[in-house]
Inverse folding.
């Protein structure tokens, strides 16, 4: 059984997460390069960027599901790469992770999915576990009758909400959302946005969300970080092309940021035509 | 109808390669294939070491072990019993004519039972397990990999090898001896029923000859080998599932390769253990020769 460590009192003002010169390569393909970021406790940061620019890879590196090729990730000053299996487990239960497709366990019911972290890491009695599960599901707006259902019987929006309830069940300090509104209709997307805001109001949590939905980023985040694809950057050029308050992104002078915010294809159309013509 | 000038010219622009370039490319392909194979062996060794590390460190919870035991043992029982019965009967059908020519029909039981207990029972039970359980395990774990469920386990601080592989390995290891004994028993019974009831061989002499030639050591050999078969099936199937390529095609390929590789491993282990066990047997009892011959 792993005990949940509390942050030392003097570290409350220090950044919860620091990313230092992060780079990730898969074979010869460079996905992330030269990323420097600092995330303050209690902040909600949206990481935006076009598809394939490495947003999900960045998120998985922050929880040590992927090992960076270069650089380091410090959680409260502790280098995640230097932790052994036991220390990493202790660290990971301080995180909550909402996966893109929710990643619920198919073989388990909704109740078992949400209860999984509690059964894995605590010695709470079964009655209390059931109470917490119902409480978390109510918080995300799901009725009791979903408890016995399997994930395959749920809609996309419900799966995301169950995933959020599961991510929140241990009351983590850092919540990572991987494209929380992708594949949902505008109304359900807004429901998820509201849930993220409510979660933050109820629990003192630091959040990092990866999205390419500008509405979500601007509604939920305090700060926006934009990544640019490494294939369009020079070697060692920083991949973060915007890092600032959410309200300032629209007035950013960088043409690449403006293009993304306005959703304009720009030179991509010309490039596509050239590629097709070249064949 | 498209104009022929619009069609892409397939080989026109391709530069002509010299003989040396061709040979170099072939050598490079073979080298890349060998390198991939070596990397796979290395990854499998690490996977195996991690599994044994977790097995030695912490046993799985009852809640994760019991479903694996049920899935692997209880649900495999009917198919193993049925195929065991048929194999026994088929052996009786195939060997009857030869034994009758030598007027040795009552000795059929010795040969059939010996082959069943030492070879066919364990190999058959293991093959059925690889087909029924191995491919299903690879497909299930592969789907979990593709849908990020394995990442979710890690993200929640649960080690996927401890949570998913150790229970499956233990279930295969613990239950394959029982499945082998059932396959042996059903095969022996099937052969005896067919030989004595349908082929008219004397029941008393059939059983007397059978018990004379098949000893406890033969039963031990079969059960001992089955332990290695079970372990190999679980490890290969779980490894294939864990290292599954993305998409439905990747999951399908993982399931197929889990069965094929498990089957090859079963035969290879059978050969190596057969040689090893015979060497041990004859070094302990050097004067012993097969009394059947």
């Amino acid at each position: 059984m792993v005990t949940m460590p509390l942050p030392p009192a003097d570290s409350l003002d220090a950044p919860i997460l620091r990313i230092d010169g992060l780079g990730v390569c898969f074979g010869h393909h460079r996905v992330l390069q030269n990323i420097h970021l600092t995330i303050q406790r209690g902040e909600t940061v949206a990481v935006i960027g076009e598809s394939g620019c490495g947003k999900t890879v960045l998120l998985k590196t922050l929880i040590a599901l992927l090992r960076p090729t270069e650089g380091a990730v410090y959680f409260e000053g502790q280098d995640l790469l230097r932790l052994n299996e036991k220390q990493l487990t202790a660290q990971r239960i301080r995180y909550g992770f909402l996966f893109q497709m929710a990643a619920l366990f198919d073989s388990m019911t909704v109740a078992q999915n949400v209860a999984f972290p509690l059964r894995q890491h605590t010695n709470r009695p079964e009655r209390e576990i059931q109470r917490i599960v119902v409480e978390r599901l109510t918080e995300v707006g799901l009725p009791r009758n979903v408890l016995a259902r399997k994930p395959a019987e749920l809609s996309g929006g419900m799966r995301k909400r169950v995933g959020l309830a599961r991510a929140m069940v241990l009351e983590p300090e850092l919540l990572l959302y991987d494209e929380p509104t992708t594949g949902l209709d505008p109304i359900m997307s807004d429901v998820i946005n509201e849930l993220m805001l409510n979660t933050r109001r109820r629990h003192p949590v630091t959040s990092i969300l990866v999205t390419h939905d500008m509405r979500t980023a601007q509604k939920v985040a305090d700060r926006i970080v934009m990544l640019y694809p490494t294939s369009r950057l020079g070697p060692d050029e920083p991949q973060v092309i915007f890092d600032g308050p959410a309200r300032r992104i629209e007035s950013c002078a960088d043409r690449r940021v403006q293009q993304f915010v306005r959703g304009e294809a720009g030179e991509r159309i010309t490039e596509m035509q050239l590629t097709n013509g070249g064949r | 109808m498209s104009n022929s000038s619009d069609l892409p010219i397939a080989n026109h622009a391709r530069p002509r390669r010299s003989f040396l370039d061709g040979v170099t490319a072939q050598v490079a392909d073979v080298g890349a294939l060998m390198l991939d194979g070596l990397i796979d062996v290395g990854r499998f060794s690490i996977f195996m070491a991690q599994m044994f590390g977790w097995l030695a460190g912490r046993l799985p919870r009852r809640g994760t072990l019991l479903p694996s035991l049920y899935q692997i043992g209880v649900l495999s029982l009917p198919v193993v019993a049925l195929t065991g019965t048929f194999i026994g009967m088929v052996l009786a059908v195939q060997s009857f004519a030869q034994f009758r020519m030598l007027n040795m029909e009552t000795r059929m039981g010795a040969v059939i039972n010996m082959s069943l207990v030492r070879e066919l029972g364990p190999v058959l039970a293991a093959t059925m397990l690889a087909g029924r359980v191995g491919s299903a395990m690879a497909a299930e774990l592969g789907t979990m990999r593709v849908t990020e469920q394995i990442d979710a386990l890690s993200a929640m601080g649960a080690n996927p090898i401890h949570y998913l592989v150790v229970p499956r390995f233990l279930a295969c290891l613990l239950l394959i001896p029982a499945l082998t004994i059932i396959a042996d028993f059903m095969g022996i019974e099937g052969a005896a029923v067919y030989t004595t009831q349908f082929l008219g061989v004397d029941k008393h002499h059939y059983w007397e000859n059978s018990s004379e030639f098949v000893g406890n050591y033969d039963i031990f050999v079969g059960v001992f080998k089955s332990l290695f078969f079970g372990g190999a099936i679980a490890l290969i199937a779980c490894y294939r599932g864990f290292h599954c390529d993305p998409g439905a095609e990747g999951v399908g390929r993982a399931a197929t390769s889990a069965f094929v590789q498990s089957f090859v491993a079963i035969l290879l282990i059978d050969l190596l253990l057969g040689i090893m066990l015979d060497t041990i047997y004859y070094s302990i009892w050097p004067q012993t020769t097969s009394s059947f011959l």
